[in-house]
Amino acid sequence: MEKTKAYRTMKVLSVSGLCKRYGDTLAVDDISFEVGANEIVGLLGPNGAGKTTTINMILGVLEPSCGTILIEGSDIRSRRSQALARTNFAAVYAPLPGNLTVYQNLRVFGLIYAVKNLSSRIEELLAQFDLTTFRNVKCGVLSSGEQTRASLAKAMLNRPDLLLLDEPTASLDPATAREIRRKIRMFASESTGGVLWTSHNMYEVEEVCDRVLFLSHGKILLEGDPKSLPAKHGKENLEELFITVAREPLTLGNRRLP
Amino acid sequence: MNLNRVSAVVLRQFYLIRGSFSRVVPLFAWVAIDIVLWGFITKYLNTVTVSGLNFVPILLGAVLLWDFFIRVMQGVTMAFFEDVWSRNFLNFFATPLSISEYLGGLVLSSIITSSIGLVVMLVLATLVFGLSFFIYGIAIFPFLLVLFLFGIALGIFASAMVLRLGPSAEWFVWPVPALLSPFAGVFYPLSTLPEWMQYISRLLPPAYVFEGMRSIISGGSASGSVLLMSAGLAALYILLAGLFFARTFRHAVRTGLIARYSAESVA
């Protein structure tokens, strides 16, 4: 436990004054947050709140209109390759190319991330994500749950310092989702990595995340421990709080808690 | 430039081609058909003309060189289209892979695929139609180099165009060689063209190759300095095409198009 607390003082991700403007629309409005080592941070909010826009900016595939993003101290704008070498992601909207097998995709991405002992790392991940029987199956013919597991295996290839997960359990059955949550918790506790996680499953968020950020209309409205945050706002649970953020964000105001 | 990442792009193309009959066949089928068709046309022309001119090195040689240029260009664009078709941009560009490494991978893939087409064409043209490359002397090497460089430049430019305009712009890429061929003087001397077309021809490196080829066949020689200049021009075009691709990529990152590429535009 003490070790975990010590690690959390190290920041794997520092986002400062981040914003993204599309014409007159402000998709992300001056947000700042950090993710520490061994920490799982939930990025929550209704559809269109700016979660995926934020993740895309952290991944370097969307240029911020203002603000800075530091991954392990490397600025994504000026030291892109260095920053992204220690990052990885899985998202429901970015499945692995369907015309390559699971093994081939892992091999290609393993080379890109310069993974050492790549063959054995691939075997390890195939076993870990229960993909051994699918190693020579094209990703395009896998079920959505199997594709998600393949994406997660890719996301773990380089043992990232920063792991970005955009609704990673959205297409998984409850048993597999629980297993995946266990693996990601294990990743966060056993490595020096931190996780930024988006999900609409509040039960899952409460179970997994150390801290949550509620995003609405591009702004962070609330921040805190998912177990204690609902009570602080007079709500029974995280789901009720989520619905309030989605429907009546003004009743909460900009109240970021420590 | 990290060679591991370049090799990853090439390996992806290798996996795709190795496992796919529909990708292997086009590597040599169309160029083989072209050589056979033009081989018989040149044989026929040799029998009906009274000039005694041998059309094999003039026409068949020109077809072979032009097809090589097309294969090089399409080697780059096809490799790029594989990422368009499988919506792989987000996966690829959210990694440490840089634009120069990505383009380097596309170019290396093109070298391999276009070499296969070249070998098939050479074997067919030599064994079936008696085309001897010795007739061009050592000039064949700068000829191939200039066409290769220009094919790469055009392939990168065409890929950037598709990146900018969206997947449906793929249609614009296929006719590009056909649009250029009248200006390149593949089958006739540039002096045949009206003056305004000749101005455009001077900007095209392949035009110097085909002029040099005809000069050698008619007993003259290809100017080394002209070929050097055309290779320099083609290299300049590669640089400009690379800059255009990088600029287009930056635009796509600024607007969010990379993350939503299937939408074709973010407007």
Topology of helices and strands:
The complex is a heterodimer of chains A (258) and B (267).
Chain A: H1 2-8, E1 11-22, E2 25-36, E3 40-44, H2 51-58, E4 66-71, E5 74-75, H3 80-85, E6 87-91, H4 102-112, H5 118-128, H6 144-156, E7 162-166, H7 174-190, E8 194-198, H8 202-208, E9 211-216, E10 219-224, H9 229-232, H10 238-247, H11 249-252, E11 255-256
Parallel strand pairs in A: 3-8, 3-9, 6-7, 7-8, 10-11
Antiparallel strand pairs in A: 1-2, 1-4, 4-5, 9-10
Helix pairs in contact in A: 4-5, 5-6
Chain B: H1 3-18, H2 21-24, H3 29-48, H4 55-85, H5 89-93, H6 99-127, H7 140-165, H8 170-173, H9 176-184, H10 195-201, H11 205-217, H12 224-255
Q: Give a short account of the largest sheet of chain A.
A: 7 strands, mixed
Low-confidence stretches of chain A: none
Structural class of chain A: alpha/beta
Number of strands of chain B: 0
Q: How large a portion of the residues of chain B is in β-strands, by DSSP E?
A: under 5%
Fraction of residues in H or I helices of chain A: 25-40%
Query: Helical segment tally of chain A?
Result: 11
Shape of chain A from CA axes? Answer: globular
Describe the structure in brief:
The complex is a heterodimer of chains A (258) and B (267). Chain A contains 11 helices and 11 strands.
How does this structure look, described?
The complex is a heterodimer of chains A (258) and B (267). Chain A is an alpha/beta fold. Chain A has 2 domains: 2-86 and 164-256, 3-Layer(aba) Sandwich (Rossmann fold), CATH 3.40.50; 95-159, no CATH class. Chain A is 38% helix and 26% strand. Chain A contains 11 helices and 11 strands. Chain B is globular. Chain B has one domain (3-263). With 267 residues, chain B is mainly α. In chain B, 73% of the residues lie in helices and 0% in strands. Chain B has helices at residues 3-18, 21-24, 29-48, 55-85, 89-93, 99-127, 140-165, 170-173, 176-184, 195-201, 205-217, 224-255. The A-B interface holds A 22, 52-53, 56, 59-63, 80-82, 84-85, 87, 89, 91, 93-94, 96-101, 104, 107-109, 111-114, 154 and B 2, 4-5, 7-8, 11-12, 15-16, 20, 82, 86-98, 250, 253-254, 256, 258-259, 266.
